[in-house]
Amino acid sequence: MDTLARKLGLKTNPQIFFWSAGLTILLLVLFLIFQDWVGDAFGSGREWIVTNLGWFFILGVTVWLVFLIWVAISRYGRLRLGDDDDKPAYSNLSWFAMLFAGGIGTVLMFWGVAEPISHFSNPPFEGVQPYSAEAAEDAMSISLYHLSLHTWAIFTLPGLAFGYFIYRYKLPMRVSSVFYPVLKERIHGRIGKTIDVVAVLGTVFGLAVSLGLGTSQINAGLSELIGLPDSVWAKVIIITTLTIVATSSIVVGLEKGVKRLSNINILVAVGLMIFVLIFSDTVFLLRQLIESLGTYASDVVPLAFWNDAMAEFTKDGGWGWQGGWTVFYWAWTVTWAPFMGVFLARISRGRTIRQFVIGVLVAPSLFTLVWFVIFGWSAMEIDGIGGDGGPISEAVAESVPLAMFEFFDNFPLTTLISGIAVVVVALFFATSSDSASLVVDMLCSGDAEAGPIRQRAFWGLTEGAVAATLIVVGGEAGLSALQEVITVVGLPIFILVTLMIPTLFIGLRHEKHKVTPMTHQHFVQMYSDQLNGNGNGSDTGEASGGGDESVSAPKSGAAPSASTTPPSETATPTANPETRSDTS
């Protein structure tokens, strides 16, 4: 494999790259040749996972969230993601903007109207009447449960693990590095490479499902605007076109332009939200913004442990609702965990664990709250709270991707706004694919720097090919077929992320001697200095001059501590002979 990598001019770990690429291509061939068999296999697999392991997904994400909160408020929250004298590379404002760009654009566009309306018209709780005020309140709480704190916990945990082990232990930019406290040097052997291959496969298929959902929404929008048939082959053409655009941007070196376009796209999405706020019942939405925050705060704990355990006795469909919503969400979101983990770690180097966890959990969750209140409550009010439903509910029942465009039919400049929405989703598709190609390449190479263009272009084309294949295999089943695939693919990634908790705990315990519990006096002094402008913005204790409160660390250039840093041959990603095939 090393020889082949050199001949192809690749700068990657050959074993991880070729096994990941080979297995992906093999799966694509099997999917296309044995479509019925593959569909049945994924359907059966999903049914078994949902029935027997749904509780594991629901409990698992809640445990992750609790663990993250504990780490943030504990003494370990003052450790930095990087050397102890590192400073954040980005201002808070830029950092928060990048958090939004990284993970929620396409998701909010797809589900902002569709999910609240789905729960509004089909309440999951016994005794709640469809389209009632109670159904509307429950719909909002459930939507926020699915897409705020818990979703961002799924991104925050791997981001924290990556940032901690890669930047403090100087390990390669790979998922296996997170398991160094347990595996030690075996992260460079077969076990480590197996972990990395599983992570790459899960990431590629998770991204493909997201691209498939985005394509469905683009197709629905074009169907409304220009009459393009809402069909499998129309979706394949859309995926192919956008994949070529995204890959071309890599080949001709337009990545900076694409990133700039991504930032503009975010502003356009925010503009859509403001447009809806202005032309809806503005006062009602502002009231709901406050009330929904309180309702979510009171409902999130019961929802976090709700397993619908009595469904087999009280519902005709049994436990199916949780499988189609919560378990699907967690399985789908966790396949983004390696991608988002790398992204969050790269933009957060130099921040303390406390700053990282609070920032990544809270800022995007607050934006999600605002988005869902404006789009979700507007849609439910238009559909008729206390009535019998309306056109938006009918559209969601017919096709979930139609929801946003049926919603825009109730506003002025309908054609223009719908057209802008299609462009926003398409650009989120292209920019996500472009970024994902870079991250998947890093997961293979272990290098934090971009690899050769041919490697990233390969992964860009592969993601598009997988998305198109899933659309073809799913056929007219559409969303349900994608749910089946992602639930099965998400299970091994979910297990890997769960195991990051003990490895992180072990790693943090090794640095226990560096941090002492924060006293009330130190706490008051530290934040008083920050408010008065006397501190450096850190919360390590150094800003307050807290003596034994500060985190001690080797000076720049000094030998790293044996308790936190692996042997010298793994000191940097490029120094490890296994991470590059053509060092010269």
TrEMBL record:
It is found in: Cell membrane. Its main location: membrane. The keyword Hydrolase does not apply. Residues 550-578 have a biased composition (Low complexity). Keywords: Cell membrane, Membrane, Transmembrane, Transmembrane helix, Transport. Residues 534-548 have a biased composition (Gly residues). Pfam families: BCCT. The chain crosses the membrane at residues 16-34, 54-73, 93-114, 149-167, 194-213, 233-254, 266-286, 327-344, 356-377, 411-430, 458-479, 485-508. It is a multi-pass membrane protein. Residues 529-584 are annotated as: Disordered. The keyword Transmembrane applies. Belongs to the BCCT transporter (TC 2.A.15) family. This is BCCT family transporter.
